[in-house]
Amino acid sequence: MIKLVTDSTCDIPADIIKKYSINIVPINVLFGNETYRDGIDINAEQFYKKLVESKVHPTTSAQSPGYFSEMFTRLSKETDQILVILFSSKISATYESAIQAKALVGDICKIEIVDSLQTCGGLGLPVIKSAEMIQGGARLDDIVASVKDMCSRSHSYMVFDTLEYLRKGGRIGRAQALLGGLLKVTPILTLREGIVTPVQRTRSRTQAIDALVNMVKGANRIEALMLQHATTPDDLEILAKRVAEFYPREKTVFSTVNSVIGAHVGPHVLCVNFIEGK
């Protein structure tokens, strides 16, 4: 059977990871000289607590080609086909590390690597769909084509309190235009062509949640949906109840925004992710 690999920014809940035997590559989170592997050495709850308490602003770094090559070598003993779906190459070196690792291991098996140009649920949802296709016996080439199509229709919209974390982390992308006197607004950002891009700026958390609801409501048929928060479960529940009016709650995936993204957006992030129908 095809082995599926993704990275820890996918935010796929543990029960789904276990169900489909998805292999997760941890991205590194650094607080000064302390390095933590996301989801292994530090979980989201521990990270956000440390984020608020630490005087050191965290940074992140991609996993090494050596880590990927070791994983590919191990998996090649169990399969002759590996599918790798990763974090946007426009804001992370993770994809490049995987490409280098593929060259290092040579022809040990067929390895397909897809740059999702997404993160969080925008990455996680296509990975889950891919896992379902693998379990259903689909061919690797067909799954790769489907993944690329799904990623092009995958959307993530994030609300958080300040752009300051993005500015400090150097991942602000096209949202640079919002800096200046606007650090105190409640911005909504997305990834477009893999780059952080502003969508809307609101003046309150309530307005921002309204906007997220409208984005889901205005989508052209939703194939899959993930709702996420970091430290605001009450806001997530408000969002979930409103979205449930037009998308079944029982089909919605609920998750916590990972440490890697948290390092760049701060502790109060709220996120909707969906694959839009054709």
State the total count of DSSP E strands.
13
The CATH topology of the largest domain corresponds to Rossmann fold
Strand order of the largest sheet: 10-9-8-13-11-12
Low-confidence stretches: 171-182
Number of discrete helical segments: 10
Please give the domain count.
Answer: 2
| Fraction of residues in β-strands | 25-35%
Structural summary, described in words:
It contains 10 helices and 13 strands. With 278 residues, it is of the alpha/beta class. It folds into 2 domains: 3-152, Rossmann fold (3-Layer(aba) Sandwich), CATH 3.40.50; 155-276, Hypothetical Protein Tm841, Chain: A,domain 3, CATH 3.30.1180.10. Strand 9 and strand 10 form a beta hairpin. It is globular.
Keywords, separated by commas or semicolons:
single chain; 278 residues; alpha/beta; Rossmann fold; Hypothetical Protein Tm841, Chain: A,domain 3; 2 domains; six-stranded mixed beta sheet; four-stranded parallel beta sheet; 38% helix
